[in-house]
Amino acid sequence: MSVKDHKLAAARRALSFVEPKMRLGLGTGSTASLFVELLAAEVRGGLSVLCVPTSEETRALAAKLGIPLTTLDEMPLLDLTIDGADEVDEELRLIKGGGGALLREKIVATASDRMIVIADESKRVDKLGTFPLPVEVVRFGVTATRNMIEMLAHDSGCQGEIALRLARDGTPFVTDGGNYIFDCAFGRVDDPESLDEALKFIPGVVENGLFLGIADVAIIGGAGGVAVLEAHYGESAEAV
Q1: How high is the mean pLDDT of the chain?
Q2: Do residues 199 and 106 make contact, with C-beta atoms less than 8 angstroms apart?
Q3: Alpha-carbon dihedral 61, 66, 67, 73, rounded to 10 degrees
Q4: Which of 3, 238, 5, 13 minimizes the C-alpha distance to 117?
Q5: Residue 152 and residue 144: Cα distance in Å, rounded?
Q6: Model pLDDT for residues 120-135, shown as the tens digit of each residue
Q7: What's the pLDDT tens digit per position in 82-109?
Q8: Which of the 8 DSSP states describes residue 17?
Q9: 147, pLDDT greater than 80
Q10: In this structure, is the dihedral angle defined by the CA atoms of residues 27, 33, 37 and 38, taken in order, positive or negative?
Q11: For residue 219, what pLDDT is reported?
Q12: With bands split at pLDDT 50, 70 and 90, how would you rate the model's confidence at 240?
């Protein structure tokens, strides 16, 4: 099976958590997009749901596929968000934001009763940090904000290259919220909670890609089948 097959298996398993009349948050990224496509097929078959997308990219895909959409202003409380992750550890702590939607993803996830993460087995790690941590920042004073990130991250035991994310044309990548992103290659993060608190202290930081205590379930597709990890309840596995 290919990596895409593993992602698809995780997305398909996540679909079993969706019930009629649910208010859903739709994630962003390659695995989340597979889930959106599967969900659209169920909607065409008569499933009634109302969804809030976490990015303009996801909104465009869901609208094209005929999924009923709303906004978080119109429906501020959701039943379930299903989203991908760039990394997930054994405590269901995540790094997200590789697709640039971390701010809206975190807002939608925390407005939901539950969050389910779907990913292929390459995203499962013992320690967070191999994937560079995205940090969304306002454009004003961006160099001063970068210096503060470097200083306070160092105080939290993290150091490494902090690079401004660029778009394909070489200009700074701009999020849906109009902000920039620094990708912080800190390597192994031994104390994600400390780093998260340090980054929140910086005025120019809008949000960071550490999702701590937010995910309730992680569904991981791999060569051995699908593993379902639940917060505080360990892991179960099933064949695909």
Answers
A1: 96
A2: no
A3: 80
A4: 13
A5: 12
A6: 999 999 999 999 999 9
A7: 999 999 999 999 999 999 999 999 999 9
A8: T
A9: yes
A10: negative
A11: 98
A12: very low
Q: Which two tokens stand for residue 155?
A: 């105080």
Counting runs of H as helices and runs of E as strands, what totals does the chain give?
6, 14
In whole angstroms, give the CA distance from residue 142 to residue 148: 10
Any bridge partners for residue 166, and if so which? 172
Backbone angles phi, psi at 235, to 5 degrees: -130, 145
38, 214, 240 from 83: Cα distances, Å: 13, 12, 20
Burial 139-171 (b: 16+ CB within 10 A, else e): eeebeebbebbbebbeebebebebeebeeeeee
User: What is the pTM for the complete model shown?
Assistant: 0.94
Nearest CA to 118 out of 240, 10, 4 is that of 10
Catalytic residues: 105
Q: Which of 32, 40, 42 is nearest to 11 (CA)?
A: 32
Is the Cβ–Cβ distance between 25 and 55 less than 8 Å?
Answer: no
